[in-house]
């Protein structure tokens, strides 16, 4: 039974890593062809579906291996809650082909940062940790000092634009929730970044 669970875990990590790499490849093909103007129409549904698949799977595996108490203390829960909130905040836009929020350059920066960082994270989860090689140390530095800040800053900008847009005002309670998240977003992102540096 444990052998099947180990194989399923490796399959999940491999499939998630390949799908995030496919997200980056899809962006790299679409952006030169259609620019940021029509990019949401070709990539938004895939992005939201991939984030949901990756976060729900990661939470389930975390519950399997760390139990509830370990999952509640992990940085994985914070990252997954953040990405699920992003999906909920950005997916309520009914006409994402014409949304000004998703046509911003921050959307492309978010896709680049998210796809490459999550591809790296899920790919490294498949292998046992040994003594780091020069190349893996270089990849870790790129992940920590370039990809994570790009992802978090572009996500913050997208959430800020989402609050400012007229499409985000569906109910006053939802608007207050968005503003509260924006207040706590950067401090929590800095805490997550500091944990990633260790």
From TrEMBL:
Transmembrane helix as a keyword of this entry, yes or no, is: yes
Q: Which GO terms describe its biological process?
A: (1->6)-beta-D-glucan biosynthetic process; chromosome organization
Which superkingdom does the taxonomy of this entry point to?
Eukaryota
Q: Which residues cross the membrane?
A: 9-29, 41-63, 142-164, 176-193
Question: Which keywords, in A-to-Z order, does the entry hold?
Answer: Membrane, Transmembrane, Transmembrane helix
Which Gene Ontology CC terms are recorded?
Answer: endoplasmic reticulum membrane
What is this protein identified as?
Very-long-chain (3R)-3-hydroxyacyl-CoA dehydratase
Q: Which organism is it from?
A: Huiozyma naganishii (strain ATCC MYA-139 / BCRC 22969 / CBS 8797 / KCTC 17520 / NBRC 10181 / NCYC 3082 / Yp74L-3)
Give the organism's phylogenetic lineage.
Eukaryota, Fungi, Dikarya, Ascomycota, Saccharomycotina
